[in-house]
Design a protein that fits this description.
The complex is a heterodimer.
Chain A lengths: L4 H14 L12 H7 L23 E8 L7 E9 L2 E5 L10 E4 L4 E4 L1 E6 L38 H6 L3 E6 L7 E4 L1 E4 L17 E5 L2 H6 L8 H27 L10 H10 L4 E6 L2 H14 L3 E6 L7 H6 L3 E4 L17 H7 L4 E3 L10 H14 L6 H6 L3 H6 L17 E4 L10 E6 L2 E5 L23
Parallel strand pairs in A: 1-4, 1-5, 6-7, 10-11, 11-12, 12-13, 13-14
Antiparallel strand pairs in A: 1-2, 2-3, 5-15, 7-9, 8-10, 15-16, 16-17
Helix pairs in contact in A: 5-6, 5-7, 9-10
Chain B lengths: L1 H18 L13 E9 L7 E9 L2 E7 L8 E4 L4 E4 L1 E6 L36 H7 L3 E6 L6 E9 L5 H4 E11 L12 H20 L1 H5 L10 H11 L5 E5 L2 H14 L3 E5 L7 H6 L4 E3 L17 H7 L4 E3 L10 H10 L4 H6 L3 H6 L17 E4 L10 E6 L2 E2 L5 H8 L7
Parallel strand pairs in B: 1-4, 1-5, 6-7, 9-10, 10-11, 11-12, 12-13
Antiparallel strand pairs in B: 1-2, 2-3, 5-14, 7-8, 8-9, 14-15, 15-16
Classes of the chains: A alpha/beta, B alpha/beta.
Chain lengths: 472, 424
């Protein structure tokens, strides 16, 4: 695996900061504090929409004699996978099923980590897709760093169970790309919940959606920005304000005398980017614009975690590797607008070869159901063009690498012992068009069983509106 | 503006007359004999042939079988260990009509109105549109190219994916009349389904009336009709059963409406979309209606609450002639993998290959000329490195009308420029 060391260290740090659900002033402190501050103090010190996710119980699971892509080592054949209490116990021939374990015959089947999509709009562009569910773009101002995707997410979106049936366990839900800075993302476990809080991945850092190019300048053409240079001025102006805001708050935190500085939600998100605690997730298609954005990040001293869509990443793959910026890309979706016109199916393979980190994303309620196919197609496209990609690399495109992009790679994304038991059992080679996810475990809990309707999530919307479900 | 429109419409009609009968299935530039030897041949019309030979002569398939002698002077392509199939037919695309989706200048799919039966897309085709070469590299050799929205969107054409002029591409024009049941088709009926159906009936009745009483119409002795003479004329082949109707409908109610209208006016129906088709599969089979399935759609919408991925398999099981016709702008090249997904969802492999070759040819009434490897058919042939429906294979030779096409595109040029960074 070609993982730039510097970036890995940064991820570890972010997780250290993020894991205790105290990612800085904008995330939730402990409940005791909350009670105290209910009568006095400031909103900034109260819980900010904290995760109420709880792992669901499940017996230990022992999958025997399976083919395994761990995303952390070579492909294994005819081996066993054991997980218990929500954690991977191990992968290997020396394991035996503990008492009470559900033993599953994996002969001829494949096991991978749960798939992770860095770019989804499930819940914010929910089905059935009318204006009423159109909650993804706060297209009222070019900079809306103050909005949070989780405040739009509808947990009853019937698209979510379809993604689970495709082997997906974790998604990043992003605001749309109308704005230069579109707002905070939410990282969710794809499990049923009445509230989005019940789905929020504990400790996951927030992402901040930024967008280059055609979309913002089209949406704001009458009020500005209406050009790419206007886009750049817009980002710079926003971060200039945040720079000052961060300094004021950091000074007050160091010496909390008197009232705190005025709280501003927009600057608060941007200041967290400057502190490295919110990860920039940057919709950007064109090579030259990615280079501009990397310079912007240098100007303000932050790091872009991933470019999204990045159809021209192959033109600047060396620069991406240099700056440890990952890409979240399709294997082959191109031509729908000018800035996507130079998309090629070898994009993933070329970026991988240059040493930058690749994730295959969906940005689609349809594509999210077939991320494994997209990875397979992109891997083969590379091979066929003389840019070989190993299966071990390709599985990381939809597991470990997206986990890194979301800052949760110390928790999930591989089948290493101690990681969360996010596991998929496939009917065959996950890189084949013919293979289906048979069973999906999310944090050790059986979230999907193709052969058992009792383990198939049906949202409220599915009830009474037909919807045959999966596998019926 | 009106003048321009009238001129174009007249052009469209002329085109229909001159190319109505596969006029453009002309042979290759130079008479040539090609022998593809040693491969596993999937003729689709019959069982596979191990170590088979496909002989192409003058743009047509001359012979298919095992142990055939290679004709003297033939160009030989050794396909030992390869898979040989008919070229794929994409039955629901905008290939040649769109270069860059969001750029209006490069889109030729849509008339301005709601009712455009005389609109024929052919003269908007751009033989050099990049998506053609890209799709061809994945074994797509022919396509049904259709106009877009409105109640009656207009006339689609069947094209072969090779040539420099519209006339080189077009094989059948018109190939079908596209009518949208439900969805945006309702706008022409005041926003309701029943209104749209009433409008359709009025148009069909007026077309028949116009046909019976042309002389009176010419003397201004006829009541006003629901559409222009050009549009009413264009509907006559539909009403005479000579031109199929591609009825776009997903919702069960809309499919049933289309079936009802088809019975009333004796239309030759092809259902497109058909998301809830599985719910009326026996009726579709009984009526002999083929279905062009968007087989990767299962997200519930108000017009497709019961969409499901195994729709295509369920339809086939009921005896429907199913065509895999998944269409997403810019993803025409993925057709073979859409067929692979149909296998994933329960269609047999043979039926899946048929669903992108012979089945669409049958649906459009051109199975005597295309869709399988049989003597006399147009030589659309692909040699694959392996299973064409899965990712691990690639097309190694693609013949369109008996001529091998280069497996390059704007995409391969970009790829090769940036193989090493910075580019040389």
């Amino acid at each position: 695996m070609m993982i730039p060391r510097r970036a890995s260290a940064a991820a570890g740090l972010a997780l250290l900061l993020g894991c205790a659900a105290t990612t800085g002033p904008a995330s939730g402190p402990a409940p005791a504090q909350a009670r105290d501050s209910a009568t006095a103090g400031w909103s900034v010190d109260r819980p900010q929409y904290p995760s109420t996710y709880h792992r669901r119980p499940n017996p230990p699971v022992f999958i025997r004699n399976a083919n395994v892509l761990t995303a952390a080592g070579p492909e294994l054949h005819g081996t066993n996978v054991l997980f218990q209490d929500g954690k991977i116990v191990g992968v290997g021939n020396d394991l035996t099923p503990p008492a009470g374990a559900q033993v599953i015959d994996g002969t001829g089947k494949w096991v991978t980590p749960g798939l992770i999509d860095t770019h989804s709009h499930l819940g914010v562009y929910a089905a059935p897709g009318t204006f009423a569910e159109d909650d993804g773009n706060e297209a009222t101002n070019p900079v809306t760093a103050e909005v949070w995707a989780e405040h739009s997410i509808w947990p009853q979106d019937p698209q979510m169970p379809l993604a689970v049936a495709g082997g997906v366990t974790v998604i990043q839900v992003l605001p749309g790309s109308a704005n230069l800075i579109g707002g905070r993302s939410a990282v969710l476990r794809l499990v049923p919940g009445r509230t989005v809080q019940e789905m929020k991945f504990p400790g996951a850092p927030y992402g901040l959606k930024m967008a280059c190019g055609e979309n913002p300048k089209r949406v704001y053409q009458n009020r500005g920005p209406s050009t790419r240079m206007g886009n750049m001025a817009g980002y710079r102006t926003a971060y200039l304000g945040a720079e000052r805001y961060r300094r004021q708050w950091d000074a007050w935190r160091a010496h909390p005398n008197g009232d705190p500085p005025a709280r501003n939600l927009r600057d608060e998100s941007l200041a967290e980017v400057l502190r490295g605690r919110i990860f920039v997730q940057n919709h950007c298609y064109r090579a030259d614009e990615m280079a501009q954005m990397m310079d912007l990040a240098r100007e303000f001293g932050f790091h872009i975690r991933s470019f999204h869509h990045a159809v021209e990443a192959y033109k600047v793959a060396d620069l991406l590797a240099r700056d440890s910026v990952a890409v979240s890309i399709w294997y082959d979706w191109w031509g729908f607008k000018m800035e996507s016109n130079d998309g090629i199916p070898e994009n993933a393979a070329l970026v991988q070869r240059a040493g930058a980190r690749v994730a295959i994303h969906s940005d689609s309620e349809d594509g999210i159901q077939r991320l494994n196919q997209a990875a397979g197609a992109a891997m083969q496209a590379g091979d066929q063009a003389g840019i070989p990609v190993t299966r071990e690399q390709a599985i990381r495109w939809i597991t470990a690498n997206p986990a890194w992009i979301l800052g949760i790679d110390s928790v999930t994304g591989t089948l290493e012992a101690g990681k969360a038991a996010d596991v998929v059992l496939w009917s065959g080679d996950p890189f084949s068009v013919y293979s289906k996810a048979l069973m999906v475990w999310n944090d050790g809990w059986l979230a999907f069983d193709r052969n058992d309707p009792a383990h198939q999530w049906r949202t409220d919307f599915n009830l009474g509106y037909g919807g045959p479900g999966v596998g019926e | 503006m009106r003048l321009l429109q009238a001129h174009r419409r007249a052009g469209g009609r002329r085109l229909a007359l001159t190319t109505g009968l596969v006029a453009a299935l002309a042979g290759p530039l130079a008479a040539q004999t090609i022998a593809i030897t040693g491969g596993t041949v999937y003729p689709v019309s019959g069982p596979k042939i191990e170590h088979g030979t496909v002989i192409i002569r003058d743009g047509k398939v001359a012979q298919v079988g095992a142990g055939l002698a290679v004709p003297a002077g033939a160009q030989v392509i050794d396909a030992t260990g390869k898979w040989v199939t008919p070229g794929l037919i994409h039955a629901g695309t905008t290939l040649g009509l769109v270069e860059v989706g969001s750029i209006g200048q490069t889109r030729e799919t849509r008339e301005a109105g709601e009712i455009d039966p005389s609109f024929n897309v052919a003269e908007g085709l751009d033989p050099f549109a990049t998506p053609i070469a890209v799709a061809r590299m994945q074994g797509v050799t022919a396509a049904f190219v259709a106009p877009g929205d409105g109640l009656i969107a207009g006339q689609g054409v069947l094209i072969g994916l090779r040539g420099e002029r519209m006339e080189d591409l077009v094989r059948v024009s018109p190939a079908a009349m596209v009518i949208n049941f439900g969805g945006e088709g309702r706008d022409a009926g005041g926003g309701t389904t029943a209104g749209a159906l009433a409008k359709l009936r009025e148009l069909f009745a007026d077309a028949q009336e116009y046909d019976r009483r042309r002389a009176e119409y010419g003397r201004n002795a006829l009541r006003p009709l629901a559409a222009s003479p050009a549009d009413l004329d264009a509907l006559l082949p539909v009403l005479q059963g000579r031109l199929p109707v591609v009825a776009v409908a997903d919702k069960r109610r809309d499919i049933e409406d289309a079936l009802r209208i088809a019975r009333e006016f004796r239309l030759r129906l092809i259902l497109a979309g058909g998301a809830e088709g599985w719910m009326v599969a026996p009726e579709l089979a009984q009526a002999g209606v083929p279905v062009l399935v968007q087989n990767l759609r299962d997200v519930p919408r108000w017009d497709a609450l019961n969409a499901r991925l195994d729709n295509v398999a369920l339809l086939r099981r009921a005896g429907v002639n199913v065509v895999v016709a998944q269409n997403d702008d810019g993803r025409d090249r993925d057709l073979r993998w859409s067929a692979g997904n149909a296998v994933r969802e329960g269609l047999s492999w043979d039926d899946a290959l048929r669903a992108v070759t012979l089945a669409p040819a049958q649906a459009f009434g051109v199975a005597d000329r295309m869709g399988s490897l049989d003597a006399g058919k147009v030589a659309d042939v692909v040699v694959w490195s392996g299973d064409p429906l899965d990712f691990a294979s690639q097309a190694e030779h693609v013949f369109v009308g008996g001529v091998e096409v280069p497996l390059t595109s704007r995409q391969t040029a970009l790829r090769d420029r940036y193989r090493t960074l910075p580019p040389q």
